[in-house]
């Protein structure tokens, strides 16, 4: 192992480096007012597809949204969760009656 420098920061040999996805989701250079609750900010994200070493397609997520990881370590349950949420919202919208309170 050897020391490595990344964007002006020196990472000494032998150090463990961990990814903190929440920090990516709170980046003010990417998201306007990142500390406010705004679920619509994720609406325009694109899922990128890459090829792994064996030539298989790999969903790498988005460079700015890491809830499901990325690359070859992309969450295998991500598509299942999306299906579950679609079913949940379908039932929420079709099985209940909504009224507006003044």
UniProtKB/TrEMBL annotation:
Heme binds at residue 75. Pfam families: p450. Its cofactor is heme. One of its GO terms (molecular function) is iron ion binding. PANTHER family: CYTOCHROME P450 26 (PTHR24286), P450, PUTATIVE-RELATED (PTHR24286:SF236). This is Cytochrome P450. Belongs to the cytochrome P450 family. It comes from Linum tenue. Keywords: Heme, Iron, Metal-binding. The keyword Metal-binding applies. InterPro entries: Cyt_P450 (IPR001128), Cyt_P450_E_grp-IV (IPR002403), Cyt_P450_sf (IPR036396). It comes from the Eukaryota. GO terms for biological process: brassinosteroid biosynthetic process; brassinosteroid homeostasis; sterol metabolic process.
């Amino acid at each position: 192992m050897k020391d490595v420098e990344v964007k002006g920061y020196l990472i000494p040999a032998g150090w463990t480096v961990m990814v903190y996805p929440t920090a990516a989701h709170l980046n003010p250079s990417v998201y306007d007012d990142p500390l406010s609750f705004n679920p619509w900010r994720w609406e325009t994200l694109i899922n990128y597809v890459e090829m792994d070493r064996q030539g298989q397609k790999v969903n790498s997520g988005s460079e700015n949204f890491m809830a499901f990881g990325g690359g070859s370590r992309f969450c295998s349950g991500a598509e299942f969760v999306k299906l579950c949420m679609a079913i949940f919202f379908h039932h929420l919208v079709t099985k209940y009656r909504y009224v507006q309170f003044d």
